[in-house]
Amino acid sequence: MAIELEALVGHLYIAGGRAIHTTPPGALVQVASATAARGRELDTFFVMVLPSGDIAPNTFYEQMATMSAERYFEDSGSATAALRNAFNVLNHNLYEHNIGGHKHYEANMICGSLRGSDLYLARVGSAVAVLRLDGQTTTFPPDLTNDETLFNAPLGVQPVPDVKLSRYNINAGTRLIFGDASIAEMSREKIDATLVAGNMELVLDGFRGMVTLNSRLIGVEFVVPDAPSVIPVVQGESTTAIAGEVVTARQQARIALAEQEKKQSKPTEALRQNTKKSLSSVAHRTAQGMEAVGNIVEKIAPEPDSKEQKKLSFQMVTAAVVGIPLAIVAVVILQWVTGTGETEFEQCLRRANEAAEVARGIDSSQRQSVLAGWQGMLQITAVCQELRPDDENIAALRREGQTVVDALNNITRRELQVVATFPNATISQLVLQGLDLYALDDTNNLVYRVQLDGQGQAAGVPQPIANMRQGATVSGLTLGEILDIGFDDQVDTVVAVDNTGVLVRCPPRFINQCDAQRVLASENWVNPIAITIWQSRLYVLDIGSAEGQLWRYDPSGGNYASMPREYFAGQLRPNLARAVDFDISGGGTVYILFSDGVMTSYFGSEPQAFGFSGFPDGQELETATSRAMFLNDSPINTGFYIISQAQRSIYETTLAGTFMNSYQVFDPENLALMTDVAADPGQGIVYVASGNAVLSIPTGGN
After folding, report:
1. Mapping DSSP to helix (H, G, I), strand (E, B) and coil, where does residue 126 land?
2. How far apart are CA 538 and CA 564, in angstroms?
3. Phi, psi for 352 (deg, rounded to 5)
4. 678 and 633, same structural domain?
5. Is the peptide bond before 161 cis (omega within 30 degrees of 0)?
6. Cα angle vertex 626, ends 621, 632, to 5°?
């Protein structure tokens, strides 16, 4: 069944403890106009602009909300890039205004973008969101009790805004609240109880009872079209009719099948033709619906010419564009309701072929419908493959469908090779130096060396390094639990550091002739997670203190004999609590990767402008869970390789953060245990640690 979601929108505006019956200044919900950029036609935009510092006139917040929507719908990039761009433009205008000696203006802001069933959220300052999804309450930021994450610098204060992003997959019944930091003062139990109230009016009434003095809220409930609402809405064209045709076609086919089964005969040719005719009609109507989406706004939301109409426009249906891709899936799945008198596999194969025909017939300009059509076909072939795993016809259909889906999602899919496996191991870290690949076995606290041949594959059995294992005694020091490994290219030594500060160095040419020392002040480390060696200086990333720190050890006489320096000093230190990895470029720029896909850069501890861009929709790093990174600092394809275990993907970007490629393999479960990545751009190979193996993936060719 095709599911179409609508957004029922309400507002709450409390000032001085009194409810004001008007839309809060700065609250806006808007669908795309006919002039929206390509890729924005199906989006719905939500924004709440909130006061910060001195209170500005109401028109200030209204104009900011309007401008943010305009900037969003003008941007043809990914949803997260468009959200980030809207923040950057507004912040630039405010910041330039503020440093010009005029009256100082600031603002907190939170935005949302609905694309299909994906809800993207972005915030700057102390604005927050609360979602009720699948019976659970989620907040953005996740911890409203942590002032460091709740209260960030608002727009207009810094030259580059600190934009936080997140993505959620929503469904019918999801409820969303945009509001100010006063939500953090409310009881979590009361919020949970309020969000499950009978309708959005009762939800807003519940929040009204929890507000003491001032608050501005947007409340949104995502519902199916026929759901009753206490909020007046204007009905407009949607995909309900298309969904109805899908249901009708399915019912007709089932009735015909039941009659044929009673007669214990095969379906007649007329039945097959009627079913195909019904499917063709539904697919044709679906394509027409896609073409008409760009005009829906003009039909259901004419430009308001009065204050009352403007108020109503804030409360109208804004998400009539969700159901069309799902209708396409319903069309291809509908193939399952016909066909008797064949083996189960023959029926499955026929239906898969028919689904592929439907998918091939969809207008290629309708990206979401094409994507949904082929994904529906892949669902059918997955069942067929269980019935006959080695069938060439099914394999060909799956490869065709996967190729189309990958092309639409900008995914490069490769065959992987096993470079080396390790007994009872969990490989957590990789270091590549020439034709030597070093791997840290986190289970046994042991470092291996894998020597590679000219094609980048293992030239022999992995060799454990005797002096780089837990319990080994080197220079009178016993190595404990190994924290990380690195390579000092200034003196050509591989380095291992344990959690207590014991550092062991071994030259590759004489791998068992090692020395060790304990670096000073390692007792001050709280939760060290990674090391990097740059120009023989040792850097240790410690995320365990209040904000975290990057400790720097300078060499002297071949040892680290002095106390460490704090890389980040002063009042404005970055919060490193969610950092997962870091590296340093040849020029000395420090790059720190966080679990939410954000990367920050610093030079001499001063923040540098950096941001990822150009990522295809749905693959933005902000929406994935990042695990580790590799900085390719060679002259060949300088940039980053970043792994996301959750997405089973390796992302390649330029040094400036621009998307280049997304690499996956034909069996994604082979990357389900990814922990680290290294790359040899000269050979065109990416090495991945996954489980007890090191895998190689070619980045060039087909």
Report:
1. coil
2. 9
3. -65, -40
4. yes
5. no
6. 85
CA distances for 385 relative to 89, 171, 282, 397, 398, angstroms: 50, 29, 28, 11, 9
Structural tokens at position 450? 């894998």
Residue with tokens 């207590």: 500
| C-alpha gyration radius of the chain | 29
According to DSSP H, which parts of 522-626 are helical? none
Does the pLDDT value for residue 399 go beyond 60?
Answer: yes
Q: What distance, in Å, lies between the first and last C-alpha atoms of the chain?
A: 38
Task: Please report the DSSP string for 406-443 in residue order.
Answer: HHHTT-EEE--EEEEE-TT--EEEEEEETTEEEEEETT
Mean pLDDT comparison of 255-264, 493-502, 605-614, highest-scoring range: 493-502
Single out the residue in 408, 431, 454 at which a domain terminates.
Answer: 408
Which residue reads 């060039």 in tokens? 700
The whole model's pTM is what?
0.54
The C-alpha atoms of residue 521 and residue 397 are separated, in whole angstroms, by 61
Q: How far is 159 from 448, CA to CA, in rounded Å?
A: 46
Parallel/antiparallel/unpaired status of strands 136-140 and 175-179 = unpaired
343: helix, strand or coil: coil
With helix as H, strand as E and coil as C, how does 139-153 read? EECCCCCCHHHHCCC
Alpha-carbon distance of 167 to 73, in angstroms, equals 19
Tokens 């791997």 found at? 439
Task: State the burial class of residue 424 (Cβ atoms within 10 Å of its Cβ: 0-12, 13-18, 19+).
Answer: exposed
Is residue 559 in a domain?
yes
Domain that holds residue 212: 6-223
Looking at the structure, tell me whether residues 377 and 481 fall in a common domain.
Answer: no
Q: How many domains, the chain?
A: 3
Residue 268 scores a pLDDT above 50:
no
| Residues whose CB falls within 8 Å of the CB of residue 200, separated by 6 or more in sequence, listed in order | 8, 10, 175, 219, 220, 221, 229, 230, 231
Residue 233: inside a domain, yes or no? no
- The enclosing H or E element of 561 equals none
Handedness of CA 31, 37, 43, 44 (dihedral sign): negative
Strand ranges in 126-260 using DSSP code E only, listed in sequence order: 128-133, 136-140, 164-169, 175-179, 215-223
What pLDDT was estimated at residue 491? Answer: 94
Q: Compute the average pLDDT of residues 527-554.
A: 93
**What SS3 state is found at 529?**
strand
pLDDT at 687: 96
Residue 567, domain CATH:
2.120.10.30
Closest alpha carbon to 462 in 497, 493, 436: 436
Nearest to 5 by CA among 211, 189, 240: 240
- On whether residue 626 sits in a domain, the answer given is yes
d(CA 556, CA 35): 64
162 plus 276 within the same structural domain: no
Instruction: Count the residues in the chain.
Output: 702
Same domain, 400 and 421: no
Which runs of consecutive H residues, i.e. helices, occur in 620-659?
A: none
